[in-house]
Amino acid sequence: MSGTTGAEHQVIVLTPFAQSTQLAAACVLSDIHGHVVPIGSYHAVAVDDPDFERAREQAATLSKIAGRMDVLLLIRREGQIDASQWRRGAHEADVPAGLALSKLPSVLEQLLLGSTTPEQVEGSISTRGMTKLQASAAAMTPERHAIARTALMWSAAAILALVVLIFALIIALGGTAPAWAGVAAAGLVLGFAVWRVVSLLGLGRKGVRP
Q1: How far apart are the C-alpha atoms of 79 and 86, rounded to whole Å?
Q2: Residue-level pLDDT at 208
Q3: Distance CA 105, CA 38 (A)
Q4: Does residue 27 contact residue 43 with C-beta atoms inside 8 Å?
Q5: pLDDT value of position 174
Q6: Which of 16, 74, 193, 196 has its CA 20 to 30 A from that of 1?
Q7: Residue ranges of the chain whose pLDDT lies below 50
Q8: HSE-up of 205 (CA within 13 Å, CB side)?
Q9: How far apart are CA 173 and CA 75, in angstroms?
Q10: Would you state the pLDDT for residue 138?
Q11: What is the pLDDT of residue 2?
């Protein structure tokens, strides 16, 4: 029960995300509900209504998004704290919780023990306040935004070339021989524009890690 002082159970996933909105977006798109809180230069998610069976799955999911950087899963239940490292969707190792917490800002331990609620941490964000559409936009890096804008431009060029191609083809079929040159030119532009859009979308799918 995240967000309740003195709660008996808690699940917190510490990530390498430097921006709270990007982690919140990743959580929303992965159906992970909770509060994103700043922990030093990184951010963690304090999971709402922690399900310990799902905690490992949630850590694995966020570690896939984090790429080559580690994610730390912290679970408190029945007075015991367990900590484990995750990378690229797989469990790397169990680590001593005390040692891990000693190297991190004290707010993390306070959240884990329930002496501080996520809402009390300055800069915290509830994932429930973000829609999936907003999350998709927030998850886009500047590189992806640039790719999307360029792909949109070439999509418009492809549509325009298609209109010109149809118009020129109608004229050419009506017996105007020079119009075939317009058909050929429009066809070339259309083909190149479609190729550019497909290439750019391929780059966008590769993604950029936080």
Answers
A1: 23
A2: 42
A3: 10
A4: no
A5: 82
A6: 16
A7: 1-6, 206-209
A8: 6
A9: 73
A10: 61
A11: 39
Give the pLDDT confidence score for residue 5 in this predicted structure.
40
Contacts 24+ apart (CB under 8 A), 146-152: 147/200, 147/203, 147/204, 148/204, 150/196, 150/200, 151/196, 151/197, 151/200, 151/201, 151/204
Q: Which of 72, 100, 103 is nearest to 86 (CA)?
A: 72
Q: Residues 9, 13, 19, 21: what is their CA dihedral angle, to the nearest 10 degrees?
A: -60
Does the pTM of the predicted model rise above 0.70? Answer: no
- The domains of the chain are located at 10-138, 142-206
Predicted pLDDT of residue 197: 85
Residue pair 10/45 in contact (Cβ under 8 Å)? The answer is: no
Closest by CA position to 59, among listed 27, 35, 29:
27
Site of tokens 């149809």: 166
pLDDT, position 6? 47
